[in-house]
Amino acid sequence: RICVITLAEAHPLLQSGKTIENINYQISANCSRLQNKVSGKSKRTCLFVFQMQGAQFLTELAPLCRISSSDGEEYTIYSCIRGRLIEVNENILSNPALLQEKPSTEGYIAVVLPKFEESKSITQGLLTQKEYEEVLMKRRSSAS
User: Fold this and answer.
1) 134 lies in which domain range?
2) Whole-prediction pTM value?
């Protein structure tokens, strides 16, 4: 039920050999994802139940961070999912190369917890690995 936000394999930062210069969780003058402070209890039964206070609510189009590369390009990374922001990965601030070297593990961007009642419809809407690869092939063939 927890969603870990990472860079997709096909993201330009992972494909083009670019160097990441900066990662900024400051979304606007009044909104920093670094100020997301989750507090509360988690109780263990057969499911984890979180009682959270202070977690920022995200929509699918909510920006999580901005990543600048050495060639001057800037990429805004969006949540792509509705839910509560549980944590951002502060380790990538001091070691941005983690995004490229270990994008699906230590180089994750954030962790989001969708509403329980929405989690089933979210997972049903996800692509399989094969479907994702087909989308990428179509993009590449239309770009050539």
Assistant:
1) 3-28+54-143
2) 0.79
